[in-house]
Amino acid sequence: MDLGIKGRNALVCAASKGLGRGCAVSLAREGATVTIIARGREALEQAAADIQAETGAKVVAVVADITTPEGRSAALAACPQPDILVNNAGGPPPGDFRNWTREDWIKAVDANMLTPIELIKATVDGMIARKFGRVVNITSNSVKAPIEELGLSNAARSGLTGFVAGLARKTVRHNVTINNLLPGQFATERLKNTMAARAKTMGQPFEQFFEARKNAIPAGRFGDPAEFGELCAYICSAQAAYITGQNFLIDGGTYPGTY
After folding, report:
1. Residue 171: in which H helix or E strand, if any?
2. Which of 43, 97, 119, 131 has the most Cβ atoms closer than 10 angstroms to its Cβ?
3. pLDDT-based confidence at 147, cuts 50/70/90?
4. Helical (H) or strand (E) element with 214
5. Minimal CA–CA distance to 11: which of 69, 65, 61, 57?
6. Is pTM beyond 0.90 here?
């Protein structure tokens, strides 16, 4: 299927690794010009080179912290009129809410709620004027089923979800959609690091803990970031113009609810 986004400009945040990179690859494969943002220069530049070699698309790398005003300015200077915006930022650390300070809460809300809102604010009017726009926010399955030790993420990402629910109904008449992708457990570096910390806290060998968590997923495996990217690309397609304000859970069947 031709997704109808060849020649479109895409801005993908936190795209040197993991889910962000998966999205960048899929969009580039569909012919979009992709600008990728991340803090680590070496990994980002390698990702840009790899994606360009694999897809033949133009890929621009911008080393920046998207959660800062300076980082957002650098990203938008490189891609001033994105047709596609993929919001993504690393989640806050796990812990017990009794130990979190006001600064911890502000940092989490700033990165995982206010940063996406600022980027939407900076780009949505241009999308409306051009009569095409796709915004995808990478949030978490914790929006659907809160994760006990991830209270900071639960709160910040749920706040973004609530904001998007209202705005998405206002922009869709202009062919500008806003949707959220809710990943479960994917085979990324962050997943391994998080599980290693969790296993250590519980006093379990990492491999034993890792296998147990994998086997608890109905699919019997962790997700592949490439699968995530393909869903992202479809939501950004011309064919997805009638889909807005939705939360797409992609978790291998982990969430047990009907709705």
Report:
1. helix 151-171
2. 119
3. confident
4. helix 206-215
5. 61
6. yes
| Beta strand residue intervals within the chain, DSSP E | 9-12, 33-38, 59-63, 84-87, 133-138, 176-183, 247-250
Instruction: Using alpha carbons, list the distances in angstroms from residue 210 to 26, 91, 196, 251.
Output: 28, 20, 8, 16
Parallel, antiparallel, or unpaired: how do β-strands 84-87 and 9-12 relate? parallel
For 109-115, the CB contacts below 8 A with 24+ separation are 109/155, 109/156, 109/159, 110/67, 111/67, 111/156, 112/139, 112/153, 112/156, 112/157, 112/160, 113/156, 113/157, 113/159, 113/160, 113/163, 115/66, 115/67, 115/72, 115/87, 115/89
Please give the angle made by the CA atoms of 230, 131 and 76, to the nearest 5 degrees: 70
What is the mean predicted confidence (pLDDT) over 196-202? 83
Distance of CA 6 to the CA centre of its chain: 21
CA 139 to the chain's CA centroid: 6
d(CA 4, CA 185): 30
Q: What is the pLDDT of residues 225-252, one digit of tens each?
A: 999 999 999 999 999 999 999 999 999 9
In 13-156, which ranges are E strands? 33-38, 59-63, 84-87, 133-138
Residues 6 or more apart whose CB falls under 8 angstroms from that of 64 comprise: 37, 38, 39, 70, 71, 72, 74, 75
Dihedral (Cα; 236, 240, 242, 245), 10-degree rounding: -40
The span from the CA of 158 to the CA of 101, in Å, is 19
Reported as a single tens digit per residue, the pLDDT across 64-109 is 999 999 999 999 999 999 999 999 998 888 888 999 999 999 999 9
CB 258 within 8 A of CB 190: no
